[in-house]
């Protein structure tokens, strides 16, 4: 007879929904981790429920305070908030596992009293020897031998100086649950042995503390990566024991998000891949709205024909049951394109303000811009907002407006036509005729077009715009690509624009 999900599984909806984000503070935050918190956050906000942020820091060899602070930095930059947990407190404090050992001991004592766990003295060598003697494959691991130890046998082990581990007495029955993303899943009886919750010496393990924290904190929905799906069977077994012992009253619902693959092949996006490094993406110039929009698309969509949406629209539409179980591939170019769409959605003043850290880091402007720098930035930012995908492009695109020294890029110099000096000299002559008080982008364009573009019979050079204006762009910015040419000249002013055109003539000799 097929098994069915445990009737004690939660039916929580709406404001009763409680999800959690529980990373280990190891290494730098990566995009897979951020997608996990994003989906949990969006589900909580969509339902009007709660997001709990706790830290799983029991691995002292790998955990670090630096990584913890980086997690906080990441979430604050992304503007993902939480309702309970580290830094904000709540009714289930403390929210760091390293501070909860007394709680775990109390829960273990209650499981012991309920007969859900038992003392285990078997060493790895003894388990292997028994498996070999019984013709049982070693990879099957523990054989539940200690389940039936007598009091005398336990006393004998203790007399040898052995300390017991504590193992859960796994029920001999199928375990079934309905994955909110993948549908019904059944783990057959006997598919895994009794497993250790607490090591000899009293060290609690992840398969114990993670579900215990979820139970004590009232987590109703566990939304996590597909790679953790195999551990669900053990968690269901432990949850059954926790309910029987009166430690919680329900079993949470589970949802396992699809893997995020790298751009090539079918391998999971490595944490060591630069594209997975959240801070590297921020350094390149992602804004949080654009990055979160893209990460939401790794397994979910707001509509079949729509990729760009606001965080408010994400929250309004998001439901975990709509997530696709198939692997999602990280596409850097698409991510940057979507980021560009969000940059264009920013208010001009907001956009200009977000450019400051990137321009400052490159030494283009001060960290707190001077009034002159602020005025130039406010005027220049709208010129590039429509064409920028990453804020990190700002120093290259705008730097020439904040300095008197133009550095010519090699590829820009190589792009100059043979008649570049002729074009530059003619342009200087045209610009000198524009009155200082009328030196606007429109006036500049008219003057230059009349001199450079007009047919020879009309007194011009008869050049195509690309040939005519390319040398001017290089002279002003040192680059082949820059903000709109005539607007840039207006910002630089008449005398500076003419000086730069002449400087390139001199540099070419």
From TrEMBL:
Q: Which UniProt keywords apply?
A: Aminoacyl-tRNA synthetase, ATP-binding, Cytoplasm, Ligase, Nucleotide-binding, Protein biosynthesis
Q: Which residues take part in binding ATP?
A: 271
Quickly give the catalysed reaction.
Answer: tRNA(Glu) + L-glutamate + ATP = L-glutamyl-tRNA(Glu) + AMP + diphosphate
EC number assigned by the record: 6.1.1.17
Where in or outside the cell it occurs: the entry states:
Cytoplasm
Q: Where is this motif: 'HIGH' region?
A: 23-33
Q: Name one GO molecular function term.
A: glutamate-tRNA ligase activity
Q: Could you name the domain of life of the organism this protein comes from?
A: Bacteria
Give the family, as the similarity comment puts it: Belongs to the class-I aminoacyl-tRNA synthetase family. Glutamate--tRNA ligase type 1 subfamily.
The job of this chain, per UniProt, is described as: Catalyzes the attachment of glutamate to tRNA(Glu) in a two-step reaction: glutamate is first activated by ATP to form Glu-AMP and then transferred to the acceptor end of tRNA(Glu).
- The name of this protein is Glutamate--tRNA ligase
Its source organism is: Microbacterium psychrotolerans
Q: Which gene encodes it?
A: gltX
């Amino acid at each position: 007879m097929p098994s069915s999900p445990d009737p004690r599984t939660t039916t929580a909806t709406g404001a009763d929904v409680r999800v959690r984000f529980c990373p280990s503070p190891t290494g730098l935050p990566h995009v897979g981790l951020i997608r996990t918190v994003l989906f949990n956050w969006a589900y909580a906000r969509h339902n009007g429920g709660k997001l709990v942020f706790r830290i799983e820091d029991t691995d002292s060899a790998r955990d670090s305070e630096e990584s913890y602070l980086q997690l906080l930095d990441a979430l604050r930059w992304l503007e993902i908030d939480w309702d309970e947990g580290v830094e904000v407190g709540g009714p289930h404090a403390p929210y760091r596992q390293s501070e909860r050992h007394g709680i775990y001991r109390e829960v273990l004592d209650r499981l012991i009293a309920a007969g859900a766990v038992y003392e285990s003295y078997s060493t790895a060598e003894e388990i292997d020897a028994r498996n070999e003697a019984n013709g049982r494959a070693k990879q099957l691991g523990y054989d539940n031998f200690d389940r039936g130890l007598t009091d005398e046998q336990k006393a004998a082990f203790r007399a040898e100086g052995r300390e017991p581990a504590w193992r859960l007495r796994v029920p001999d029955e199928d375990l079934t649950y309905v994955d909110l993303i993948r549908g019904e899943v059944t783990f057959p009886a006997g598919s895994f042995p009794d497993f250790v919750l607490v090591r000899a010496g009293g060290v609690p393990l992840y398969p114990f503390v993670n579900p215990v924290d979820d139970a004590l904190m009232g987590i109703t929905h566990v939304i996590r990566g597909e790679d953790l799906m195999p551990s669900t069977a053990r968690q269901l077994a432990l949850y059954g024991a926790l309910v029987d012992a009166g430690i919680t009253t329900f079993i949470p619902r589970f949802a396992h998000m699809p893997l995020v693959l790298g751009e090539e092949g079918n391998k999971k996006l490595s944490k060591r891949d630069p594209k997975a490094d959240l801070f590297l993406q921020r350094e390149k110039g992602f804004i949080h709205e654009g990055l979160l929009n893209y990460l939401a698309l790794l397994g979910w969509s707001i509509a079949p024909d729509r990729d760009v949406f606001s965080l408010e629209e994400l929250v309004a539409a998001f439901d975990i049951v709509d997530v696709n179980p198939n692997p999602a591939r990280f596409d850097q170019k698409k991510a940057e394109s979507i980021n560009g769409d969000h940059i264009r959605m920013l208010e001009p003043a907001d956009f200009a303000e977000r450019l400051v850290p990137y321009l400052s880091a490159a030494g283009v402007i001060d960290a707190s811009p001077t009034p002159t720098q602020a005025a130039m930035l406010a005027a220049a930012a709208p010129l590039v907002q429509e064409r920028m995908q990453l804020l990190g492009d700002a120093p290259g695109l705008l730097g020439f407006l904040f300095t008197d020294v133009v550095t010519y890029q090699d590829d820009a110099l190589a792009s100059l036509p043979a008649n570049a000096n002729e074009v530059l000299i003619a342009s200087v002559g045209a610009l000198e005729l524009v009155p200082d008080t009328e030196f606007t982008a429109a006036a500049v364009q008219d003057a230059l077009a009349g001199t450079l573009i007009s047919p020879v019979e009309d007194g011009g050079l008869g050049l195509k715009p690309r040939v005519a204006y390319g040398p001017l762009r290089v002279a002003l910015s040192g680059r082949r690509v820059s903000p709109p040419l005539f607007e840039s000249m207006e910002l630089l002013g008449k005398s500076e624009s003419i000086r730069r055109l002449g400087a390139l003539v001199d540099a070419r000799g």
